[in-house]
Amino acid sequence: MSADYAGKHVFVAGASSGINLEIAHGFARAGAKVTVLSRSADKIEAAAAGIRETGAEAIGISCDVRDYEGLEAAYAEATGKFGSVDVLVSGAAGNFLAPAVKLSANAFKTVVDIDLLGTFNVFRASFDHLTKPGASLIAITAGQAVHPSAFQIHACAAKAGVNMVTKCLALEWGPAGIRVNAISPGPIGDTEGMKRLGGDPAREQQIKNRLALRDYGTKADVAEAALWLSSPAAKYVTGTILNVDGGNDVGDASANALG
After folding, report:
1. Which fold has domain 9-246?
2. What is the pLDDT of residues 190-202, one digit of tens each?
3. Got the DSSP string for 209-246?
4. Taking the domains of the chain in order of start, what are their residue ranges?
5. pTM, whole model, 2 decimals?
């Protein structure tokens, strides 16, 4: 992605590791000043330090996305350092496999609170700190938002809500010059999510065989999508759920004779 983010302030929530940290690195490589946020003070400072080692400006802030007042303070700190937020990525999430009959109400609530309430909090608390017009907001959702999955009732419900938060805010905040979109990654290799959900090598191959592109994506694939969505090339794109999933959303390609 050739877009220049020099001087821009990018804020990434849930960025201590994985896809969200790679997104932060992607924007840093493109010249942005980056704020990364996550619950663990030690992990988020390590993440920020890793970005600074590349020569980019970065700070890490410890905050739970369920803590609205904490987020307000985080934005005040971040904008005091780097100015208004040009790009905001909300990606904090929690997930695990569990049959509904063994899932406690508290466990269900925990995932919904992190994924759905957390996304709302991250976006809502940002409003007074955004560059207007011009800000780009991106939620990280998942295919479970539109495809019912066994043992994933909590994640399916939460991500379906994230999709609607994205679309509703696109409607409401568009007149202020704020674009709101979401990225829905498919199976992405070398992530904690695939380690938990992908299972052993046989299960991994089974998943790959279902994909039209026959392989897992990379964290860089998702980062590149975020860079594009926030660039002038996507200035007329809002309220969109962008699938970065190797064709996972279009169906099971395992019977495709050409594959």
Report:
1. Rossmann fold (3.40.50)
2. 877 666 666 678 8
3. HHSTT-S-B-HHHHHHHHHHHTSGGGTT--S-EEEEST
4. 9-246
5. 0.95
